[in-house]
Write a structure and sequence with these properties.
- The protein has 2 domains: 85 residues, Immunoglobulins (Immunoglobulin-like, Sandwich); 148 residues, no CATH class.
- Helix content is 13%, strand content 39%.
- It contains 3 helices and 18 strands.
- The strands form 3 sheets. It has an 8-stranded antiparallel β-barrel. A 4-stranded mixed beta sheet has the order 4-1-8-6, with no helix packed on it. Strands 3-2-5-7 form a 4-stranded antiparallel beta sheet, with no helix packed on it.
- The longest helix has 20 residues.
C-alpha cells in the first residue's frame, strides 16, 4: 500500500474525530442557573409592622375618600366647653354631632363635591352659649376650619325691687283667718295702703273692712282709722330661698306726731303669688326663720302670727 492509498483511508477517520471535538451539547452550550439557589427578593414588603388593631382610627379625623365624587369631610375644633357639658352640632340641618369635650371634631356624613355645608348649634350646653365661625360654604376639598367657641353665660341676679316700689299700693287680707281686730264676732278686717314717702321710707295708712254679718260674710263697707297710720323705714333687704325679706323699723303716728316709744322692728316678706307677710317684733328672728314662718302660715292660712295680705 503506497502513501497515497494510506492517506485516503485515514482521512475519513480524522475528519470524524475533528467533528466530534468541535460539536456542542444539545442545550445550546450556555451555562444554567443552579435550580437549588432561588433568587432572593431584594425589597419585600415588611410584614412585621402591621397597623396596630388596638389603636383605632380617630373618628374625629376621618380619611377623605380618594374619589372627590364621593364627597368631602367637614370638620373643625371646639374650645371653651365646660367640664360635664354637652353641645350638639348639626350640618345642613342634620347629621347630629354631640360633643362632650374640647378638641377636634368631624361630621360623619361627607358633603358632595361642590355641595354646600351649614354648621349650626342645635342644642346649647346648660349655662353656656356656643357660636360657630366659618360655618358655611361650598366644598371642593376637605373643610377643617369650622370653629365652635363656648362661653359661660353671665349670671344676672334677680333684681330685688326697691322696698317702697314693691310695697306701695293697697294690700288686703288673704281670707278671713284670725284677723279679728275688733269685737268678738269677726266683723272687722284690717287692710293697709302703703304710700312711698322717700327712697327707703313709706307710710302705711290702715283701715278696716266692716261687714254686716260675722265671719266675713254679708255686705262690706270701708272705713279708715287715722290713728293707726305709721311710717316705715327699710333697714335691710335680702333674698332667702326665693323669698324677698325686708326688715323695717315701724314708727306709729299719733295725733301729735311720731310715737317713737312704740317703735319696733317688723319683717315684711314677699311670697309667690303676690302675697306679703307682715310679722311684728322680729328683731330676735333670722331671715331664714322669718321665711319658714311665712311659708307655714301661707300654707295653713294661719294669720295669727303672720298677717298675710294680697294686693
Amino acid at each position: 500500500m503506497n502513501v497515497k492509498q494510506l492517506t485516503w483511508r485515514l482521512c475519513p477517520i480524522v475528519i470524524a474525530g475533528l467533528l466530534a471535538a468541535c460539536g456542542g451539547s444539545d442545550d445550546g452550550g450556555g451555562s444554567t442557573t443552579d435550580p437549588t439557589t432561588p433568587t432572593n427578593p431584594t425589597n419585600p414588603t415588611n410584614p412585621t409592622n402591621p397597623t396596630d388593631p388596638s389603636t383605632p382610627t380617630n373618628p374625629t379625623n376621618p380619611t377623605n375618600p380618594s374619589d372627590p365624587n364621593l364627597g368631602y369631610v367637614v370638620s373643625g375644633s371646639l374650645v371653651g366647653l365646660a367640664s360635664g357639658k354637652i353641645v350638639t352640632l348639626q350640618n345642613n340641618g342634620g347629621d347630629d354631632l354631640r360633643l362632650q369635650a374640647n378638641g377636634k371634631f368631624a361630621f360623619a356624613k361627607v358633603v358632595a363635591n361642590g355641595g354646600s355645608y351649614v354648621v349650626t348649634v342645635s342644642a346649647q350646653p346648660d349655662g353656656q352659649t356656643c357660636t360657630v365661625s366659618n360655618a358655611s360654604g361650598k366644598v371642593s376639598a376637605d373643610v377643617s376650619n369650622v370653629g365652635v367657641v363656648c362661653e359661660t353665660n353671665a349670671v344676672t341676679p334677680t333684681p330685688t325691687p326697691s322696698p317702697a316700689d314693691a310695697l306701695v299700693g293697697r294690700w288686703v287680707p288673704n281670707g278671713c283667718g284670725n284677723l279679728d281686730v275688733g269685737g268678738t264676732d269677726g266683723t272687722y278686717r284690717d287692710y293697709h295702703n302703703h304710700i312711698r314717702t322717700g327712697s327707703d321710707t313709706f307710710a302705711v295708712t290702715s283701715g278696716r273692712y266692716s261687714y254686716s254679718g260675722g265671719n266675713c260674710s254679708g255686705s262690706r263697707s270701708d272705713s279708715v282709722s287715722s290713728y293707726v297710720t305709721e311710717t316705715i323705714r327699710v333697714l335691710s333687704s335680702e333674698v332667702v330661698k326665693g323669698y324677698t325679706v325686708h326688715r323695717v323699723m315701724s314708727v306709729p303716728q299719733g295725733p301729735t306726731g311720731p310715737m317713737t316709744d312704740y317703735a319696733f322692728q317688723r319683717s315684711i316678706t314677699f311670697a309667690p303669688g303676690g302675697q306679703v307677710c307682715l310679722m311684728s317684733r322680729t328683731e330676735t328672728f333670722t331671715a331664714a326663720e322669718i321665711v319658714e314662718g311665712t311659708v307655714e302660715n301661707i300654707a295653713d292660712k294661719d294669720q295669727t302670727n303672720c298677717g298675710i295680705w294680697v294686693r
